[in-house]
Specification:
Shape: globular
Distance between the termini: 44 Å
Helix content: under 10%
Structural class: mainly beta
Largest sheet: 5 strands, antiparallel
Order of helices and strands: EEEEE
Number of helices: 0
Strand content: 35-45%
Length: 77
């Protein structure tokens, strides 16, 4: 097995960063990465999950986009 580290463009703007990244690659080459934006204002304010995907064993990744289902919700929703 050969593992190579690769940077994913997060468009860092100095106000938010992505944290808690988790990824998986399947035997078919499909991969999924989740990350959570953090507001860099001195408080731990986290937002809904973002997702990036690959179909070539991680050689290229899609742009990080907000998940439609892994989002913050009010209790009872």
């Amino acid at each position: 097995m050969k593992i190579e580290r690769q940077m994913i463009n997060t468009n860092f703007n100095g106000k938010y960063c992505f944290t808690h990244a988790r990824g998986v690659i399947t035997p078919s080459g499909f991969g999924l990465l989740t990350a959570q934006p953090l507001l860099l204002s001195g408080s731990d304010v986290f937002y809904g999950m973002y997702i990036s995907t690959t179909n070539d064993f991680g050689q290229t990744w899609s742009e990080l986009k907000p998940s439609k289902t892994l989002v913050r919700r009010k209790l009872g929703d």
